[in-house]
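Submission checklist for the structure archive. All mandatory fields must be present; incomplete records are returned to the submitter.

[x] Identifier: Enoyl-[acyl-carrier-protein] reductase [NADH]
[x] Organism: Flavobacterium xanthum
[x] Residue count: 396
[x] Sequence attached
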Amino acid sequence: MIIEPRMRGFICTTSHPEGCAQNVKNQIEYIKSKGAVNGAKKVLVIGASTGFGLASRITSAFGCDAATIGVFFEKAPSEGKTASPGWYNSAAFETEAHTAGLYAKSINGDAFSNEIKKQTIDLIKADLGQVDLIIYSLASPVRMHPTTGVLHRSVLKPIGSTFTNKTVDFHSGKVSEISIEPCSGDDIENTVAVMGGEDWSMWIDALKAENLLAPGATTVAYSYIGPSLTEAVYRKGTIGRAKDHLEATAFAITDRLASINGKAYVSVNKALVTQASSAIPVIPLYISLLYKIMKEEGIHEGCIEQIQRLYQERLYTGNEVPVDDSGRIRIDDLEMRSDVQEKVAKLWIQAVTENLAEIGDLEGYRKDFYNLFGFDVAGVDYKAETNEVVNIESIA
Ligand code: NAI
Ligand code: NA
């Protein structure tokens, strides 16, 4: 069929298999162009189908020559209905990996569940023996707790008082003021349950209990800090509490991995357009201004450039991994540069509907958003018939 983007609210309900495949190929080409990284050889990526997790899988495979197992939660296609983009990304990734002679298998299901952990453990036992890198890159609005059966929902709210600031509807370009009521009840606990470190811990404990972690194994989860502009709704809001918990969990995991000399890190990444971030109020306006400045300065990066730098300049330099005062890896260094932040703060004050297309990179934001779903990708013929039913080789 001919597939076009179909928007419902802030999400796109269709995705384009060839556009997604082209995105994956472009990321692979980028990684190859940067040369080999002497890194992990057997990698488990949890949240491997889109955003930073997909970039991590691609960097592992095509930068480090690693075998990869990817875990994700994506919608399979059916006749006349497209899959979710992460499905097409993973199908394309496996095809490319297999063509290159690399081991790659995928597991599609709820990573928070005991069943999917068990499936993953069985696959590692059967095929890889042990893993030496585990990337934890889940972004989800809900988590069914595997022990209590409680369904936790995360919220993106300030804590204590109402937050009022500018935001943009990036589809229409309309800048408006938004007020977000503070969280209440169990909002903080629920958000920490979904996006904090408990599930990461459970994964690592489960792998360790089965002796599936290689000596010196490393695990990395992703976090965000961002500027004071977004602090009330992000880092000092409910999601920030979850990130605090995730960051504290890294130390707890490192302690528990002492016997195998393993290490857990949190890497603080740059703000980027992903399905997860486009749902957060205020962030899209910040990102569109940030993109403008970073592109002008020639320091803009996407997920793949970020993760390539994480591997080559942080994790696998042959020296100790550089961390900040709080023990975190920082690849948000360019975003957080004071000259960049000062410029963004000035633009923030000026930003209105009438000037945003000019002072901000609204176009770049939109393009990245459409790209997430495989649309607006150079070299793809969107007028051509395309087959929406695409299999992931290892799942089929
Ligand atoms: P994303 O939405 O692109 O990727 C989320 C991944 O998690 C997908 O592979 C999805 O299939 C998987 N997933 C979601 N629920 C699942 C479940 N129940 N079971 C199995 N897989 C599931 O998100 P993104 O942006 O790459 O986020 C990954 C991490 O990076 C998050 O911790 C996020 O907070 C962090 N981060 C994101 C930044 C951004 O600007 N996008 C900036 C810094 C950190
Ligand atoms: Na991800």
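[x] Structure attached
Curator remark: The chain has a mean pLDDT of 97. The chain has one domain: 7-155+187-284+298-337.
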